[in-house]
Design goal:
The protein is an alpha+beta fold and 136 residues long. It is built from three helices and six strands; from the N terminus they run βαβββααββ.
């Protein structure tokens, strides 16, 4: 994973279910990307092969964003949880969506990862890795 950008954000997260926490992380990531100039096109696109958490446009680039959240940094934290198997599922879902939404085919494609890490003081650190992996 290449370039990483990071920011601290305070959010409420006590007593949330895993699903609520994941949705919160995706909302946080979407807001984070919007403030950095990306246009949010879709969220939680599912197909048989996988899921795309966020689909954004960054100029003439279509950005498929995987959002990962971890409360702790053990075992490499949120970013390390995007395994090769997970990357393949994201690429499979991206190919399906490119076939389904013809307007997206004309754009260059990039895969980014946003990691949301919980911090001891209750805040969250957001780490954005642009061009985290490539489809082969």
């Amino acid at each position: 994973m290449d370039e990483a950008k990071s920011a601290r954000v305070r959010t409420a997260g006590i007593g949330q279910s895993r699903r609520q926490s994941g949705c919160g992380a995706e909302r946080l990531a979407g807001q984070y990307l919007k403030t950095r100039g990306l246009e949010l096109l879709a969220r939680n696109l599912r197909c048989r092969g996988g899921e795309l958490d966020l689909v954004c446009r960054d100029g003439e680039v279509l950005v498929m964003v995987e959002v990962r959240q971890r409360g702790r940094r053990d075992f490499g934290g949120a970013l390390a949880s995007v395994t090769l198997r997970k990357q393949r599922r994201i690429i499979c879902a991206a190919r399906f969506m490119l076939d389904t939404v013809p307007g997206w085919r004309s754009l260059r494609l990039r895969f980014d990862v946003i990691g949301v890490q919980g911090l001891p003081d209750g805040a969250h650190e957001v780490v954005w890795v642009k061009d985290a992996f490539r489809a082969t």
